[in-house]
Design goal:
Elements (H helix, E strand, L loop, with lengths): L2 E5 L3 H12 L3 E6 L10 E5 H9 L3 H7 L1 E3 L1 E5 L7 E6 L11 E5 H14 L3 E4 L3 E7 L2 E6 L4 E4 L1 E4 L6 H5 L7 E13 L7 E5 L5 E8 L2 E9 L8 H12 L5 H7 L7 E10 L5 E2 L2 E3 L5 E2 L7 H18 L5 H30 L7 H13 L3
Parallel strand pairs: 1-2, 1-12, 2-8, 5-14, 12-19
Antiparallel strand pairs: 3-7, 4-7, 5-6, 9-10, 10-11, 13-16, 13-17, 14-15, 15-16, 17-20, 18-19
Length: about 375
């Protein structure tokens, strides 16, 4: 039996915990946040993400709690929110799965946490790792609750500003792309049955995605602004003003936009760790290793793919060593890097108002790439 510590219980950490524990590994998970504090607004899961969730045997729960769709709409930022294009979306997970699905992030987190515990992973919330000591046989880890344990493998799935990555001494510059995004969750108007995007107008993109029978996730992407010192009510007013510039279903969405606790604002960030993602028997996955702006809606999907590939390779190996971890990175880095670069390319085009953009071609290349099983 392989003993594994997973640092972080987000999408990547929960997924790798499920896959490893189901395969017979002894898995501990530590998560800095309390169990009840799963945060975030919504997430758009493309077909390859749904394929990974099916492989983790949580698809039935995901399907019951999310909202699937097979088409995508493009609307004009005009007085009517005119539909310009309605097209079939690529079924990157296969013909028997929806092209895409919207979910509330806390709901997805709960499904993954419950699945991990059901197959035997032990999750400790409100707990962090605060020390790593390498040896030839693995890694000893000390924790904030005063305990210490030894593991054959430690997986850093602790996000963009990964403590694990910094503790390993891996230098990686996370760059801001120059864009910021307003997000909200709210009631779903009957007219919202798929992802729809408005390009241009008061912002770069205004869009929405249904996340359930009665809920949606909506967002507006603008040039990055510093709202650090804005009050919650001031932030709400900014999003209301932006939303007022868009119509069609946005008119109904805006009418419900009254609760400042339902919105958040973040900047787009990006990085890719070239070379090794591991030091000794500690390896990084998900946003700790590669982070892409959400312009191609692949961040969660790439984290899920990392988790499945790493678990597959670890469970098949006689021992966890450099050869296994190097092979994992060789298998995952090229694909993750292409996704990040595509996401950044779209950001650059929009920021520069480049008249020669070809967003459909970039999206098509990403769809073709992720249709292939990693």
């Amino acid at each position: 039996m392989t003993s594994v510590l997973v640092i972080g219980a987000g999408i990547a950490g929960s997924a790798v915990s499920i896959a490893l524990a189901r395969g017979g590994a002894s898995v501990d998970v530590v998560e800095a946040a309390p169990r009840s504090s799963a945060s975030g607004s919504g997430i758009t899961l493309q077909g390859n993400a749904l394929r990974a969730l099916r492989a983790l045997e949580v698809w039935d729960d995901v399907r019951a709690c999310g909202y699937g769709f097979d088409t995508i709409g493009i609307r004009a930022p005009d007085a009517d929110g005119t539909v310009i294009v309605e097209m079939d979306d690529a079924r990157t997970g296969g013909p028997d799965l929806p092209a895409g699905m919207g979910m509330e992030r806390p709901v997805l987190a709960g499904i993954l946490h419950e699945a991990a515990e059901r197959v035997g992973a032990k999750i400790r919330f409100d707990t962090v790792a605060n020390g790593l000591a390498h040896s030839e046989t693995g890694t000893s880890v000390t924790f904030s609750d005063g305990t210490e344990s030894h593991y054959d493998l430690v997986i850093g799935a602790d996000g963009v500003r990964s403590w694990t990555r910094r503790t390993l001494g891996i230098e990686l510059e996370t760059e801001r792309t120059g864009m910021g995004i307003w997000r909200l969750v709210g009631p779903r108007p009957a007219s919202v049955v798929r992802t729809e995007l408005y390009y241009g107008g008061a912002a770069f993109i205004a869009g929405y995605c249904p996340t359930g029978e009665d809920s949606l996730y909506a967002y507006i992407v603008e040039a990055a602004q510093d709202h650090t010192h804005s009050t919650a009510e001031e932030r709400l007013a900014v999003m209301q003003n932006l939303a007022a510039q868009y119509h069609g279903p946005w008119d109904e969405i805006r009418e419900q936009l009254r609760d400042s606790t339902k919105i958040n604002y973040t900047w787009f960030e990006s990085h890719v760790l070239e070379g090794r993602w591991h030091r000794g028997r500690v390896v990084l996955i998900g946003d700790a290793a590669h982070c892409c702006p959400p312009t191609v809606a692949q961040g969660g999907a790439q984290a899920l793919e990392d988790a499945l590939v790493l678990a597959e390779m670890v469970l098949a190996a006689d021992a966890v060593d450099d050869a296994v971890l190097d092979a994992f990175v060789a298998r995952r880095l090229p694909r993750a890097k292409q996704v990040v670069e595509a996401s950044r390319q779209i950001c650059t085009w929009m920021l520069e108002s480049d008249p020669h953009t070809d967003v459909p071609a970039v999206m098509g290349r990403v769809s073709a790439l992720v249709t292939e099983v990693p």
